[in-house]
Write a structure and sequence with these properties.
Radius of gyration: 26 Å
InterPro entries: PepSY-ass_TM (IPR005625)
Pfam families: PepSY_TM
Number of strands: 8
Keywords: Membrane, Transmembrane, Transmembrane helix
Number of helices: 13
Order of helices and strands: HHHHEEHEEHHHHHHEEEEHH
Shape: elongated
Protein name: PepSY domain-containing protein
Organism: Chryseobacterium pennipullorum
Helix content: 40-55%
């Protein structure tokens, strides 16, 4: 007679965690795979692009000592040469004199159900500011990194509802991560030994190895994955952002900036208004990386701006340290100066959320760590599915 083996009692918490983990994994596993892979491949976008665009970014040494041409002259020269149906949107000016100016064409339509229909134009134009020569033009609309970004953001769907399509599976993925940690958690010290690393010395079965890959790697990546997921839904859902605001600064929504009126707005617009603003921004934040000036008089949503905003970036490749300047768009008079250190805690976090999401907030080490965690997250739906499929086939044989 065969000996009867008494099954170990499993707690109701682990039972329900196992069911949730399985059901949610099977329902959103494919989306988690796509979002994780696209996000992971996007992490080193700056490093890859800077390497390939080196000739466009850096100017020949002999031109650096001369004075840059007026922003207006450069803008008009670009408009004439490229003959685009849309105006130049903005210019990013590096404080490193050996780097070129970067002009941006960006126009978006509210119509269309996908990314390619909504984005009418997205071009980066690198210009030698000393000679006015157009060094290079990159069509960012079809750039692989931008496509990866919008796959990650909303599966290339309409930007109004695409993020919600991704946001719901991301929330479910957070539940999967939590239930995964509960299932991983060992009962005692003896069980704990095999949970932190692979013990494949006498293991030849691929199913066991696959299970360990899902279990062990999933545990190590889960904490970073939670950070990535929560910072991701921060972009998708306003109430998540408002919850952060409430927790950090004690109010539900960030106070709206009051519209500043200047007497100078009654005078005729100066042709050199952008140069006046650029000169002041450079003097105020000489130790910064670069600053961006809006040239078409519109914000990201296409609404007309009452004044001229200038965003100063403290470090290259990071958006967390931002200083905000506002100038009168007619005279170039400085109206407000909001340095990063004087921003509210919730405003600082709002600026930092993107960098935390991509790992760049923690420097190159953070990016590498986030990249590895992203690869593991990409593998989890695959290894998880194989675990389920293996058990399913085993149960089928018993029947």
């Amino acid at each position: 007679m065969k000996k009867k083996h008494h099954k170990k009692k499993i707690s109701s918490t682990k039972k329900w965690s196992a069911k949730l983990h399985l059901w949610l994994g099977l329902s959103v596993g494919l989306i988690v795979f796509i979002v994780s892979l696209s996000g992971t491949l996007y992490i080193f976008k700056d490093e890859v692009q800077n390497s390939f665009r080196k000739e466009a970014i850096y100017i020949k040494q002999k031109n650096i000592d001369s004075k840059p041409l007026s922003i207006n002259i450069l803008r008009e020269k670009i408009s004439l040469e490229l003959n685009e149906p849309y105006p130049v949107s903005s210019v990013e000016i590096p404080l490193d004199k050996s780097k070129s100016y970067r002009f941006l064409y960006y126009e978006k339509s509210k119509k269309g159900w996908n990314y390619f229909q909504q984005v009418l134009i997205n071009k980066q134009v690198y210009v030698n500011q000393y000679t006015g020569e157009i060094i290079a033009v990159y069509n960012e609309k079809y750039d692989v990194f931008n496509i990866l970004k919008y796959i990650h953001w909303g599966l290339l769907l309409n930007s109004e509802w695409g993020p919600y399509v991704i946001g719901i599976p991301t929330v479910l993925f957070i539940v999967m991560l939590i239930t995964g940690i509960i299932l991983w958690w060992p009962k005692n010290k003896n069980a704990r030994k095999g949970r932190f690393w692979f013990n494949w010395k006498n293991v030849k079965n691929w199913k066991r190895k696959n299970y360990d890959l899902h279990n062990v790697l999933g545990f190590y990546a889960s904490f970073i994955a939670l950070i990535m997921s929560i910072t991701g839904i921060y972009f998708a859902y306003p109430y998540v952002k408002n919850t952060f605001n409430l927790a950090i600064s004690g109010y539900w929504e960030l106070p709206k900036e009051k519209e500043i009126k200047s007497r100078d707005s009654m005078v005729a617009k100066k042709d050199a208004v952008f140069d006046i603003a650029a000169l002041q921004a450079e003097k105020l934040y000489a130790g910064s990386s670069s600053f961006r000036i809006t040239l078409n008089g519109k914000n990201k949503k296409g609404k007309e701006l009452k004044n001229l905003p200038v965003t100063v970036y403290g470090q290259e490749g990071r958006f967390s340290e931002r200083n905000l300047l506002t100038f009168d768009k007619y005279s170039g008079k400085l109206l407000t100066n909001k340095p990063h250190h004087k921003l509210r805690a919730a405003e600082k976090y709002a600026n930092a959320n993107y960098d935390i999401h991509t790992g760049s907030y923690f420097g190159l080490f953070g990016k590498i760590l986030w990249f590895i965690a992203g690869l593991i997250c990409t593998s989890l739906p695959v290894t998880g599915f194989l675990v389920w499929w293996g058990k399913r086939k085993k149960q089928g044989k018993k029947i």
